[in-house]
Amino acid sequence: MATLILTAVGTVLGGPLGGALGALVGRQVDAAVIGGRRVSGPRLKELSVQTSSYGTALPLHFGRMRAAGCVIWSTELVEHEETSGGGKGRPSMTSYSYTASFAVAVSSRPIAGIGRVWADGNLLRGAAGDLKVGGTMRVHRGHGDQPADPLLAQAEGAGNCPAHRGCAYVMFEDLELAEYGNRLPSLTFEIIADEGPCQVQDIAAEILPEADGTDLRMVFGGFTIDQGTIGDTLATIGDAVPLACSLHGERLVLRSAEGLPAALAMLPLPAASEDQQAEQAKAGGWARRRQPLPRSRQCGLRYYDTGRDYQPGLQRGIGRSEQGDLAMIELPASLSASEARAIADAAGRRLSRPRDAMTYRITEIDPAIAPGSVVRVPVAAGLWRVDGWEWQKDGVLLDLTAVPATEVGGSAASPAIDAGRYNQIADAVAAPTLLQAFELPWDGVGSGTTPDIFAAASGASTGWKGAALFVRPAAVSDDLLPLGPAAQRRAVIGTTINQLGPASPLLVDQVSVLEVQLVADDLTLPNATATQLFNGAGRALVGAEVIQFSRAAPAGAGRWLLSGLLRGRGGTEWAVGGHAPGEPFALLDARPTRLRADIVGSGNDPVVIAVGRGDITPAQAAVAGAGTTLRPLAPVHGDARRLADGSVTLTWVRRARGAWTWPDGVDTPLNEETEAWEIAAGDFAAAALRWRTAEPQLTIPASQLAGLAAAPGGAFFQVRQIGRGSVSRTLSIAFPA
User: Phi, psi (5° rounding) for residue 77?
Assistant: First the structure.
C-alpha cells in the first residue's frame, strides 16, 4: 500500500510543484533533508569568476552574500592618450590607458543594494560607496518598475533596450582599467539582497509560495541558490539544520525540527495486528530497534565566512572518536565562524550517532498528527517523530524515530571560534588632495635652461590614489592647462611646528632640532648615514631653505623630530635665518612630480591645481620660489684690498648653478652663456657708482673712491652675477680701511 506521505504530497503538490518536490518523495522526512543521496542543488563554491555566456542561469540571493555576476552588455575598450615628460633634455613619453562601460547581472530577484565590490581580488568599491579607480557605478535593483539604464538606452536605442525588470544588475560607465592590465577585471559583489539577515522561511516563501514555512526559525547571514530544484534546495538546507514537513488540511507545512515544545500529543496504546505471529503479538503492537552505527564519525561544514570577506571557511563538529568517514556539508550560506561551528556540532551529533527507530501500530489517530509530527508514546520515554505511516485493514502502522534531546531545546551555543587569520584588504576612503608646488635649484642634470618645478601631492590616508594636475598660468587668468597625472605615491609633506634657528651652512648643525607635523600618521621620514647624506639623501624643503637631515625620530601622531642638519643646501644659505613656525615642509625624494616648465610658464604667479577622486573642491598652490632654478648663485669669499696708489681691488669666488661636486683638477663650470658681474658702491637700490666686469675681480681707481667712505651707505660694496634670465643675490664686501 502506498504511504500517506506519498499520496498527500502527490495530491497537494501536483503539477509543477509535485515534480519540484521529487527529492522529498519516497524517503523518510529526515532522510530527505539530511542525507541518503547526493543532490544537485545549490552548493558552496570558491569565489567564482564572472561569466558572459549566453543562457547562464542567474542565482537567487538572500540576506547578504558575495558572488560573481554575468556580463550582459559591454562596449569596446576606449583608448585614452596622454603625453608627459619632456623639457630639460628629457624625451616626452606618450602613455595609453583604457576605459570600458559594461553591465553585470548579479541576481534574478530584486535586491536592496550593493556593498563592496572586488576586482581581481582587490577592492574596487569600498563600504562607503567610493570607487577606488575612476569611473561611475550605478545599481539597478531589479524591481518591477525599474527603468532602462540611460547609457544602455543611448547605446542600443530606447526601443531596443530592455529594462531587465526582475533582474538586479550593476552598470559601470567609463571604468578605468589601468590597474587591471587594461582588460575587464573579474568582479565579485557584496550583494545586499535583504536589509536584515536571511530567514529560511523567506527562502521557502520565495521558492515554494504554496507551502507554509512560517515556523522555519533558522537564520543565516545570507544564502544563494544557483542550481537545482526546489526539493534539492530544501535538502541542502536540511543537511545543515533538520527540517520537518507535514500536512495541515491540504497544505504542506515546513518547520524546524529543533527547538520543539515540551507539551506534545500522546499516542494511544499500541494494538497488535490479527495477522502478526505469536512472538510479535507479545510485543503488543510495537517493536523498537536500534539503527546500525553510521559510517560518518564526524561532520564538517563548508560555508562563506563573514569574518573573512565571505571567503570559504570550514568548521568541524565534535563526533565519535572511532574510525569512520567525514561527512562534509556544502552550505552556500554566509555565517560567522561560531555559527558554523554550532551547526557542525549539531550535524555531527545527528550523523555520527545511531538513532532509535520504532514501528508502532494503532487503530485510531488524531487528525492533527501527520508525517513529520513529534509525539510521545506510552511505551517509551522521550520524543518520537512520525516519519511515515501505512494504512492497513485493521489499523495504521507508524514509523517513528527518536528525537535527540538536543533538538528539544535547540543546539547548545558554540563557544567563540576564531575564523583564522585573514589579510583583509584595507578599505580607505578617498582622501582630499593636499598640495605644495615649488621650484628648486638646478640639480645639475640636463642643460639647466628650464625651471625645475615640482608638485608634491599627497593625502591624509592611503585612500588617496593620485590626482590630475593643471596649471593656471596667471593669477588673474581663468585658463587651465593640463599637466598630466601626479605620482600615485603620496608625497611626504607637512608643516613645521617650531622655528628653525639660524646656523652656519658650512658646518653640521648639531644644535637645532626641527619638529615637523606630517599630513598623515602613516607617512615616515628616513634616517641617513654620512655617506648617504653626501649622496643627496635626506633632502627637504623647509620654507625657502633646502636642508638635509641625518636623524628622524617619530614623536607620535604624525610628528617627527629632525636633527643632524646640513643647512642652506643648493645655494639657499640666504634663507637660513628667516624661518618661522608653520612653514611648509616637503621631503625631496622621488615622489614629488616634475612639471613641464613650458606649460607652467614663467607668467605672473602661476598656480598649480590638483583634482583627485576625493576632492569636493580642487586643491591649489602657488609655485613657491619662482625663478630659483635659473637664478645664479651669489658669489662668496669677498675681499677688498687697498693698493699703494690708493685704488681698491675687489675679489670674490664665483659659484655655478648645478656644480655641487667640486671635482679636483678642473675649474668650476660657469653654466651660464657668458660671465658677467655687476658691482655697486653701497646698496644696488641707491648706488652712487656701478661697475660691470667679466671676471671675478675689479680694481677701482682712487679717483672714484673719493668721498665713498664718508657717503651714507657707501661704506661697503655689493657684488652680484648676471645670469641668462636673472641676477644672483648679492655679496657684501666691507670698504677697506
Answer: -65, 135
